[in-house]
Amino acid sequence: MIKESIVALPHTKLATLQNDLTNADTTLIFVHGYLDNANSFLPMLPFFTDVNWIAVDFAGHGKSQHRSSDAHYHLLDYVFDLASLIEHLALSNVVLVGHSLGAIVSSIVASTQASYLKGFIAIESMGPLSEPEHTSAQQISASIQSRFKAQKAIRQPNSLKDIVKARCGVSDLNPHNAELIMRRNLNINADGSVEWRSDKRLRTLSPLRLTEGQALNILDSITCPRAVILGDQGFEKVKAGIDKRKAQFKGVPLYTFAGGHHVHMDSAKEIALKINTIINNY
User: Fold this and answer.
1) Is the C or the N end of the chain the one with fewer CB within 10 Å?
2) Which residues of 162-180 are buried (b: 16+ CB within 10 A; e: fewer)?
3) Domain AB hydrolase-1 spans what residues (predicted)?
4) Is residue 15 part of a domain?
């Protein structure tokens, strides 16, 4: 049974989907990608019957609380949110299952909060993104402009159908999976009209990305068992990044399934069964 829950942390409120199993030793925490939400894991969740699991909406995504008006959506704030969730719920033997941005956030938690973790599984991610130092001024300039843009009134969508079509046009999601995600990012009114539930500031750009040396230090600092899951039609930049970071991924099991960047939705049952096998061996 899937339960909706709001976890009130000292600094914010995070919406989650949870099961009602309480006596399992292991807890899986599913962490979604950029502009997605906990619903992106719905196709997989029925196949996890012997573990506790929590699928979380990042701040500003899905049904979670928005950041305050004087705050922004920094990568390390997501890291703090996830670490705070684990701490607040007094969880141990945690396996983080992160997709894309969720895997980047999870990699930093795994590298810094090892005492909580039993393992870490990354889906379509090669670890933290990085930019050369000489692009710093350019990054900051672009970030400032994106914040100016976010101050303007947002245009509300015409319909769920239009939003699903638009999301399919900029991603590899099929209409069914796109609707599954977008329903949680929208308020659907009684008259059928829709408006954004997710925070418009999510589209602002990071003021500074990590350097490559910083990203490698994070990956080198992960001590828990980990694995990587890729889609055979997934992002080429992810595959290229793993190849570039061979030393950091040496000995890390890598599994490929049919699907694109949202392979965990495309091959949900197969990936869920593989994850169950992986965590049973931890």
Assistant:
1) N
2) ebbeebbeebbbeeebbbb
3) 27-138
4) yes
